[in-house]
Amino acid sequence: MPKRKLKEISKQSLATLLEKRLRLRLNFVSLVVRLHHLFGTFPDCRRGSNQSKEFNDAAMGAFALFYTQSPSFLSYQKLMRDSEGMDNAQSMFGINELLSDNHIRNLMDEVPAQRIFPFFLQLYDDLKQSGYMEAFRSYKDNLLLGIDGTQYFSSKKICCESCCQRRLVNEKSQKVTITHHHSVVMAAFVHAEHGQVISLPPEFIIQQDGTEKQDCELNATRRWLSQYGERIAADGVTILGDDLYCHDDFCQQLLTYGFDFILSCKPTSHLTLYEYVKLLEDQIVCKEHRYWTGRRWLVDKSRYLNGVPLRDSKDALEVNWFEPSTVVEETGEVIFHNTWATNLKLTKDNIDQLVVDARARWKIENENNNVLKTKGYHLEHNFGHGKKYLSQVFLTFNILAFLIHTIQELVDAKFQRLYKAIGNRKTFFNDIKTLTRYMYFSSWENLLIFMLKGLKLPIPDSS
Hints:
Blueprint (H helix, E strand, L loop, with lengths): L2 H22 L3 H12 L11 H17 L5 H12 L3 H6 L7 H8 L8 H13 L13 E13 L8 E6 L6 E15 L7 E2 L3 E3 L11 H17 L3 E5 L6 H10 L2 E5 L6 H9 L5 E8 L4 E13 L8 E11 L5 E4 L2 E3 L8 H9 L2 H13 L15 H22 L1 H10 L2 H14 L5 H11 L9
Parallel strand pairs: 1-6, 6-7
Antiparallel strand pairs: 1-3, 2-3, 3-4, 3-5, 7-12, 8-9, 9-10, 10-11, 10-12
């Protein structure tokens, strides 16, 4: 065999080996080992012997309840351990000591959530190097990164030093009501054709040291960019955001980091831009597409205009504006309409794809925030508030569990087949919750195999 051919085979074999090793880093066992290593770096201010081991068990115990979507997971496993001498907390998550909920809360309250954030980036890098992120690329070969703020806690009684406040004054009685709340900026890679999203570290909207003003979503997003902007932008990324972000200073900041952007652009908050749109009406390009849905004729219409100022200033950033709509041809009913601004030049060749990309922004709400709130993760439930960091740590564990579930759906053939067969996220995890409560499994993989056999499904090789 020619030497050149041997070299080609060697390169292919090496590439296959490296890809397999990267995928092994993303299997459940490897992720648990890596999490134990991460938790071993958490600060432990207590004194006494064997404290690090106990602390590791506390952190993994907290993560396990979010991963299994079972708030009572540890108490169920304690009953199993007491009666059977073995349990799923130890076999699946490597938890040696089952601590009480209060003990776990007290320990986790001392851990800044930022300690967990690097693990999100490690998982993103693994997905990228394994080739999984390529399926999330779109126009200009860019990844689409949705950013959105959401509230996850509110109370008139419970609060901590990280809470923000709202003061409401009753007009009649002049009584002041203070509501304490937690909000967070979420960031996730999205794609119009994929149900999964890839979560990145969140940024909490919390009172900042040395300031009296309440924190806000925009400031939190700026902090997120200062932490991760340069690193993420280097991968080729288009930022998707709502109207809150569509102003000159923020867009300039995105461009400085190297991002492209597509941001909602409402007429009510961009008076100057829409004055120019009206003034330059004769220069607006319009592209239409008529199609039959099987039930009715629809017309997609995209109007666009390049080079309009974002604000009333000589040095204003010029953006490119587009306005897609969908109309029922027979009745004239408008069933979709929106407006966006982007730094990407608009043409008849790319406008359709950019509309698709722009509309993918809703996946940060529907496939990320909404799933976390309504599909079993109970994002808005108070699992424990604490006095310092507990609320933020539990929120971060919840998002991390969601990310790892997504990764398993991408890389684990058994998880993928099972999840597809069951077809419902809540049912899938309710089954896991019930099975792990009453039965012992020597590993997470054996649990999946048991479920596949129960559904009489072929068992794929996940290696």
